[in-house]
Design a protein that fits this description.
alpha+beta, Alpha-Beta Plaits, 3 domains, globular, 306 residues, four-stranded antiparallel β-sheet, binds zinc ion, single chain, six-stranded mixed β-sheet
Length: 306
């Protein structure tokens, strides 16, 4: 796991060229606004920040996590997230698709989130390009090709079904493309998962609006035995106008997609928390182990037996 910083700043092109070339970065030509993407564990990152700070140059920095193949290969549960988008649900105006495809009686009366899909999704034009799986904007719902549908049906994976997609203009079902519909709901995440109120959004009491995830999702080890291979999170995340349940898959799904070279989605590892209770001692210790970070034992709480 590495961290990558996106550093944005303004500077005259000539000065930028000199500085960035010296550090081995590529400048955006003829533009005063520059964007540099750099891993935070290389010396060039520290030098760049040093140069910017010592010259009084204002900059913004956004850091993201980059997982290695080893991180993903070792994960027991993963988030399956969109990488490519193939279209918008229809009709687009005023969220009209919700009336067609969702049970509006199921939403929270305060924040209007939490709608349950009860009808097929309509799409104007599917742009799958070279991908076997893609997502619809706004929804966190996946579309698969006939080929991938057959592959998943042949597998022993569980927790999904296929629904037709409707060609919005012609009012008939698309041939060769289907919605991968996930219905199973995960148990709640481990309480150490960082879910925080989103800025500038009024959070709702139902917790389906106004919350975002920071960092990795964590689940208790005991949940692994009782879940399907495809699941939705119980938590609704995303903060603002529209929120979603993320898709959580088992290692078996990840391995099949890697083996068959399925493109169009991305995976992120989930931390599995193992609870160990030692009873034969003066103290009752509860320890949590973060499996993806084996060298760390996190002391959670210690309660005296008497
Ligand atoms: Zn609500």
């Amino acid at each position: 796991m590495r961290y990558k910083a996106k550093i944005t700043f303004h500077l005259e092109p000539t000065k930028v060229s000199l500085m960035l070339r010296h550090l081995g970065f590529k400048e955006i030509e003829d533009d005063t606004m520059q964007v540099v993407n750099v891993y935070t564990d290389v010396k060039e990152y520290l030098i760049l920040l040093d140069v910017l700070q010592n010259n009084g140059i204002q900059y913004s920095e956004k850091t993201s996590v980059v997982y290695s193949k080893k991180d993903l290969d070792e994960a027991e549960l993963l988030v399956m997230a969109p990488y490519h988008y193939c279209g918008y649900p229809q009709p687009e105006e005023d969220n009209g698709y919700k009336e067609f495809s969702y049970d509006m009686d199921s939403v929270c009366p305060t924040c209007s989130q939490g709608a349950v899909q009860n009808n097929y999704l309509r799409v104007k034009k599917l742009k799958m390009e070279k991908y076997q799986i893609s997502a619809l904007h706004w929804l966190y719902e996946f579309v698969v090709t006939e080929e991938l549908k057959k592959l998943l049906e042949k597998s022993n994976l569980s927790g999904f079904e296929f629904w037709p997609l409707i060609d919005y203009k012609r009012g008939i079902e698309y041939e060769g493309f289907f919605q991968l519909k996930v219905n199973e709901i995960m148990p709640p995440m481990n309480s150490e998962t960082l879910i925080v109120p989103a800025k500038h959004v009024n959070s709702c009491e139902c917790r389906k609006r106004g919350y975002i995830l920071e960092g990795q999702i964590k689940y208790d080890r005991k949940v692994i035995d009782s879940i399907k291979d495809f699941n939705k999170t119980e938590e609704w995340l995303g903060g603002g106008k529209t929120t979603w349940q993320k898709i959580i898959v088992t290692k078996k799904v990840y391995e099949l997609f890697v083996k068959e070279k399925i493109k169009g989605i991305q995976f992120y590892p989930i931390i599995i928390m193992t609870k160990i209770i030692h009873l034969n001692c003066d103290y009752l210790f509860t320890l949590f182990i973060e499996r993806n970070d084996k060298d760390r034992l996190i002391f959670k709480e210690g309660v005296h037996c008497q």
